[in-house]
Amino acid sequence: MSEAQPTAATPDLQPGEAFAALYREPQSLRERKKQRTRRALRQEGYRLFAEQGWEATTVDQIAAAAEVSPATFFRYFPTKEDLVLSDEYDPSMAAALLARPLDEPFLVSARAVLVPMYRVVMEHDRDETLTRLRLMVEVPALRGRMLQGAEPQAMFLAVLTRRAGLQEPTLDMRVLVAAFTAALLEAMLYWAEQGGEQDLTVMLDRTIAALDKSFRI
What we know:
This protein is mostly helical. It is 70% helix and 0% strand. It has eleven helices and no strands. The longest helix is centred in the middle third of the chain and has 33 residues, at 106-138.
């Protein structure tokens, strides 16, 4: 094993702590300002989408409502779609997955990491998560990009490949990650379609457990 490969997890690792850190106020003034601006853009965007509809709402309108320039909007979100689709979860999720024992099957690691992490998300951002997922259900452009699954799929595939100590993913790895990301998306969209009435973490746990019966990598 080379030094660049991940090491095993420490026994007391708590995956939910990685997500909980995302909700703590940054120490530096600069980071606090960035956090407030990002939050304001999202809040105003969601408000305008609800009032005017997706197509009628422009980047200029969102920026004006958040009291920033359109150029500032684009520093945070490359497109209007990214305001809904992007999040800050992937780095924390990847780090927690890489910290799991290397001999642990990927889906076992994923279940141990994602379920407690999304429990934290539901405690802090349930309404925003439901709003985001409802938009993905209702807006074809958003759903189309989500169905492509390029960003999360690439992240999970990179983690799985690194955990195996390989330079390139195998076909089995690509199939597993494609199935995994598609299943997670379907569970989340189903949750939103049902009005968020069920427990999303229970649904994600069931989804990963069902996949685990078929894949062992």
